[in-house]
Amino acid sequence: MTAEINNLPDADIEFRDVSKRFGDVIAVDNVSLLIKRGEFFSFLGPSGCGKTTSLRLIAGFEQPTTGGVQIGGTSVIGVPPHKRPVNMVFQHYALFPHMTVAENIGFGLRQRKPKPSRSDMDKQVDESLEMVRMSGYGNRRIWEMSGGQQQRVALARALINRPTVLLLDEPLAALDRKLRRDMQIELQTLQREVGITFILVTHDQEEALSMSDQICIMREGRVEQLGSPRELYDLPVNRYVADFVGKTNFIAGTVSQVSGGTITLETEKGMSFSGRHSPETKMLSPGDNACVAIRPELMLIGSDSESAADMNTDIALSGQIKNQIFLGEHTEYLVATDIIGDVLVLSPKYIESRHKGFGPGDRVSVGWKNEIALVLEDS
Amino acid sequence: MIDDTNAKRWLTGVLLGPTTVWFLFMLVLPLVVVAIFSFGMRSPEGGYVASFTFDQYFNLPSRLAAFKNTLSYAPLGTLASLLIAYPLAYYLAIKVNQKWKLLLLVLVIVPFWTSLLIRTYAWIFLLGGKGIPSLLEFIGIEGVRLINTPFAVIVGIIYGYLPLMVFPIYISLEKLDKRLLEAAADLGCAPARSFFQITLPLSMPGMATGCMLVFILLMGEFLIPAFLGGGKVFFIGNALVDLFLQSRNWPFGSAVAITLVIIMLVTVSLYMRLAMGKSTGQDESLM
User: Fold this and answer.
1) Each residue of B16-52: pLDDT tens digit?
2) Does the predicted interface ipTM exceed a cut of 0.90?
3) CA–CA separation, B169 and B81 (whole Å)
4) What CATH class is the domain B62-286?
5) CA distance, residue A266 to nearest chain B CA (Å)
6) In sequence order, which ranges of B96-177 are alpha helices (DSSP H)?
7) d(CA A332, CA A325)
8) Which contiguous run of DSSP H or E holds residue A311?
């Protein structure tokens, strides 16, 4: 593993067996990972999973208890934050309230040795203001700025020293939904423009999925899975990841049979369900606890009379619609099945047109093909 | 709707009433009396004889030393208190362990539980011949005189006014967002520099408040110079005590008092304008 990492020349950030303890609490637990140059990388997980601590280890606000951190191939153990080639956008921006917008942005330049000339600094600050579309706001006070504008000032301030890596600690959490969407697009555009590594910490899976090249899903200080958004969505390693990334229906049971790529489970009630073995998951053997995971958009809904053959699926379960949410391009049904409990089905418009449409209380059939079901470790 | 605003007005009147009465009878009225006295004459046996003359004001230069002392010791004492209070407030707000914080804060105000008079007496003994000078003699430094010197007055001022300076600064440092220091470090600012670029400017409102509190009270101080200055360091406060209680020259005392009030009004309003201009604008409410 280590040799493999050494052979990669384009590693920007590297964690080697990094652990960080705060007293009895292990915030980061033996994490090894690699972030490539120019990548948009996200740490994703619920609060307390160690994602923010990981970011602070890169920024230098924390030092690992054990293990090594490298930036651009050089160990940064013991290097204080003000000597690291990375800059950070803080969660609530942490803009200096006693300085103007321009003074905030120029702060990094003023710390340089030798100090750039006055005109040089002014020029760079103006360029930065332009980059974040804030030209003409330089003399304004920080508290006169809206949340979105403060966000842009924080970005410009963090980018002015041209860091090799930009760290973003939940930068969009304080913004409303519409503005957040706009800023996501702006961040992606900005990252392509400046071409440096962006490392984002977020608990918002949608945000991570839509922006990142690579996502590291964390849980209780450990890396649960690291991969591209597509890999995480299509091939989650376990129930936790599948549950965290997108919506999923789970049927828990015990492995009864393993043959080739197909695994069969038996539920408590004695029903059997089969699915593919996810290549990312460790091999399961009979007797293991596992679950079948089926994404709602891969399920089919039909009228009560339809059998599996009618719907062209392998499984057909009957149930009753508990709730229905019309979402425009598709409709979301919550179906209480007779055998496996509540199931979420996402039905696209073109399938909806197959039948006359269902409403709450209607008896329906829910079906899926075994090949789209994944069998995952139940943890 | 109309009833509602009337009710509100009535309530405002009731709430402001006591303050207005207090303000009129305890502040405005006495000040007016003093102002009237200052244009009067002293009767041969002391007290006040009604008149309208500026004689008392023309006589002010005879107390020039008191004015000079007050106007030099008050700023000096304020500055000395600030220099000693700041590190203490910084330690309490930023460095000290959370579980000791409350105890240490209480310790700062414990001296207030006893009268200033008694505590100043204690300093007479500490600075007097049998106090610190005798200890210095013990280690071989002889002939040190502390009591009845300007130094003793400054020590007394610092001792008496330190808590008034510590608390406003403590509050402004306490609410300082620690992430601002992280942000400064992240942008390449070494810790010592970030103190001067972030911490110090953001604690300006606290320093301004503390300085004003101490300065205003020092301008009227008389106990400390009388006890620790031994008559050599004479404040306006001492002049007033002397004029009103000893020589019973009320009109001249009134003229001195009115002059002091005017000096305070001018310096404080100038100071506030200056401090306001420098503050971040967010914390103006503190002043």
Assistant:
1) 999 999 999 999 999 999 999 999 988 888 778 888 8
2) no
3) 12
4) mainly alpha
5) 53
6) 98-109, 116-127, 132-138, 150-174
7) 5
8) helix A308-311
